[in-house]
Specification:
Blueprint lengths: L1 E3 L15 E12 L2 E12 L6 E11 L6 E13 L10 H5 L20 E12 L4 E10 L11 E8 L2
Antiparallel strand pairs: 1-2, 2-3, 3-4, 4-5, 5-6, 6-7, 7-8
Amino acid sequence: MTFELPTGNSDVLQREGNGLVNLILSGVKLVDDWQFAAASGAQIPFSSGQSTNGWMSAHASYEVCSWFIPLVELNWFHVIDPGNYPNHVGGAVPAVIPFEGGDPFNLGAVNSGNNRDFVSAAIGFRSRLTEAATCGVAYDIPLTDDRDSLMKDRVTVDLVWTF
């Protein structure tokens, strides 16, 4: 479980609503050089202004060698209950946009029920730099109509340090 506190500047679509809680269930299964991971969750706002969203994610990777571990991922986001936040950009954002923000934003879009589902897929790889550090990169594209989301495509880069 994670909490998102209402912080930030409301001029850039932050600090809207009263925050939210993310309920998350995840698991990983290792089979020889394969790794399979899945997660599911719900994003539940503390105010009716933001949308209530559910999501699921699946991941598979294969360790060719320690520095090359290719991966594929599939992600699904679903608007359970559209938001109704009247103050985003003077009310224009929730009234005009017919979709929700996926994983980066909760826009509180009133019409997000018109396009409740957003699906994306990613390909990439991870590298084990040391026993404690790995890095990865993935290229993510929408599988649903990209006009019904904020994403055209994106590149994600991460560095994980375990201790």
